[in-house]
Amino acid sequence: MLTCAGLAVFIVAAEPRGGHPIPAAHQWVEVLAAFGGAVVLMVILATSGSPRHRAGLYAASAAVVGALSATLLKTVVATLAHQGLVTVLTRWELYALLFSCVTSTLLVQAALHVGPLTISQPIMVVLNPIVSIWLSVWLFGEYFTGDPAVLLAASSGFAALMVGVVLLTRTAPQHDRAPVTRLG
Q: How many CA atoms lie within 13 A of 135 on its CB side?
């Protein structure tokens, strides 16, 4: 309940305003270089180390790619609304969206496969909206209200979301193997 309530408060209070519907090409280059480079580095680092270390890196990379997918989806939908289907089919964003969705799915599965849920789930759930907010400001020029009460409510909602996710993961199994049962 804490996770759901925190998410609801955060979404209502922290909704960004303003901005423009389609980012400039140079902004995409910056974002894809920065976040794409970070994802590649995390995936390389996730090829070795403890299961917890690997799960954390795969989860972080999945969260970043998931946020990029959401950003690409927003751009594709805005292009569709303003310029039509033919334009969407001729622009790179649609194909980058498809690639990012597949990549995100693979990274989520890798995170869930290599290590404990108690590591991967909180990282994915908490990091994804943080990166999404960062991208909305960077790419779309969105901004948040300056009202201190609204900002406090949004921050409190996000904090409650984080606490709820951590508490939920504490109830997950602490090991990856099911108990062995013997027949007979």
A: 29
Q: Do 5 and 30 reside in the same domain of the chain? A: no
The pTM of the full predicted model, rounded to 2 decimals, is 0.80
- DSSP SS3 for 145: coil
Tally of structural domains, the chain: 2
Identify whether residues 75 and 132 lie together within a single domain. Answer: yes
- Give the pLDDT confidence score for residue 173 in this predicted structure: 59
CA dihedral 162→168→169→175, nearest 10 degrees, is 170
Each residue's pLDDT tens digit, 42-100: 999 999 999 999 999 999 999 999 999 999 999 999 999 999 999 999 999 999 999 99
Show the domain range for 6.
Answer: 1-17+149-173
Residue 178 located in a structural domain: no
Q: Which of 166, 161, 165 is nearest to 12 (CA)?
A: 161
- 143 three-class SS: strand
Q: Is residue 56 part of a domain?
A: yes
17 touches 140 (CB < 8 A): no
